[in-house]
Design brief:
42% of the residues lie in helices and 15% in strands. It is an alpha/beta fold. It has a single domain, classed as Flavodoxin domain (Rossmann fold, 3-Layer(aba) Sandwich), CATH 3.40.50. The longest helix is centred in the C-terminal third of the chain and has 23 residues, at 131-153. The model is unreliable at 1-9 (pLDDT under 50).
């Protein structure tokens, strides 16, 4: 599984060469300008992979984090999809497959949408993901892995 963390310095960022051996991609980006620029810089360096079609047909999914509700979770994911499309990657959204928990309005403030899992980090980044946000991220990962298994079986 490919997991890019552009804002968590304690976790490694995989090299372009390492991406070729993986069967799926799960991308993460906070919506802060610096992290989006880091993600853009990574993708700008994938021209060789694009021209060779190396990532074509591989499933990918995106999750994100914002400081607050309305902080751009969906727009961050939507803005990332064209890069996946240019590579021929298959975008795997969460959808509403998790059921009523995703669209329940009585769960309080939370991140995530049918486009991908998300969390609200708070203005200072100190808020931890809720149980619901973690469940949505887990569901997204299982959905993505299921698609990768089906593709590998073909």
């Amino acid at each position: 599984m490919l997991l890019f963390f552009f804002s968590l310095s304690s976790l490694p960022i995989l090299s372009l060469a390492q991406t070729l051996s993986l069967s799926l991609s799960l991308l993460f980006s906070r919506t802060k300008t610096r992290e989006i620029k880091q993600m853009k810089a990574f993708f700008d360096a994938t021209g060789g992979l694009w021209s060779s079609g190396a990532l074509s047909g591989k499933p990918a999914s995106i999750l994100t984090s914002t400081a607050s509700i309305g902080g751009g979770q969906e727009s961050t994911i939507l803005a990332s999809i064209p890069v996946l499309t240019h590579h021929g990657m298959l975008f795997v959204p969460v959808g509403y497959g998790m059921g009523p928990a995703l669209y329940a309005v009585d769960l309080g403030s939370r991140g995530g949408s049918p486009w991908g899992a998300g969390t609200l980090a708070g203005a200072d980044g100190s808020r931890r993901p809720t149980r619901m946000e973690l469940e949505l991220a887990t569901f997204q990962g299982k959905t993505l892995a299921g698609v990768a298994r089906k593709l590998a079986a073909e």
